[in-house]
């Protein structure tokens, strides 16, 4: 009986231990620590790692309120002075990661304006090292300081393109193939991007920096117009500011340049103090095209260069109210051959950037 009792007691003890182990096995595990957003400083300020990945993301943009004014505006009663207001929201998303072929980038720009109630894509591209493909602003979008200069033909600044840039220290060389969107029915809802287009252009640019001086030389060819456009741009740090100038020439009106046969512009940005800068500017246009100085005017096709000249002069004031909140005031005066009087125009802007 003693042996039997001992065996029964041992079995009971083993059962109790097994039960305890089974109970321990079904206890819920403690939650893993939360993965907080990590700062990514490999590509500059403002980037953070997307949780669970090695991709760095930057979110930036601005909110803008602007009042525009112009003298003798067509469409206003009696061609009187006109005013309009616009509020804009702009968001940029920039994703970057390191690869064995260089930095891989994906970029999206979205813009929404109150005056047309529409949100539009203002840029979307993929970039790997020096190779870039997507919808982005071309070389002609680069201008000089201030708001006086017209540096492209308005509709020609952004395209679906493929480009490559080679950089070697202070020297760089770029080339792009551009596909021109057909905006012939841009006023018809749903038609702006509905058409196939076989209109192409190519651009090449070389840039260099030599101490306080930098320069760009740009050449483009529009296959549809069978015309070439050339531009040279130079910048130099002089005194308390920066002096910039460019000259442009075109063999005929084309998607890259259709304002005039030739043009020259100059500006000087004077940095008065840390918050205030003033930029006067001047531009001359020789042998205007049919669109005149109205870059949003009629289609350039069939609009040959004429014999009229024009010039514009203006000044732009930039002031930082507080960090990330700025105001810009710009006033321009246009004078066109054949018109009785000149025209004043400009804007007042308030912008919060982030």
Summary keywords:
single chain, 354 residues, mainly beta, 16-stranded antiparallel barrel, 18 strands, 7% helix
In words, what does this structure look like?
Residues 1-22 form the signal peptide. Its main location: membrane. With 354 residues, this protein is mostly beta strands. It has a domain at 35-61 and 85-129. The protein contains 1 helix and 18 strands. A 16-stranded antiparallel β-barrel has the order 3-4-5-6-7-8-9-10-11-12-13-14-15-16-17-18. Strand 16 and strand 17 (325-336) form a beta hairpin. The longest helix has 24 residues, at 2-25. The chain is globular. The relative contact order is 0.11. Residues 184-194 have low confidence and may be disordered.
Could you describe the largest sheet, including whether it forms a barrel?
16 strands, antiparallel, barrel
The percentage of residues in β strands lies in over 45%
Name the average pLDDT: 86
Supply Rg: 30 Å
The coarse silhouette is globular
Number of helices: 1
The helix/strand class is: mainly beta
- Could you give the distance between the termini? 87 Å
Helix content, binned percent: under 10%
- The ordered string of helix (H) and strand (E) elements is HEEEEEEEEEEEEEEEEEE
How are the strands of the largest sheet arranged? Answer: 3-4-5-6-7-8-9-10-11-12-13-14-15-16-17-18
pLDDT < 50 runs, ≥5 residues? 184-194
Tally of strands:
18
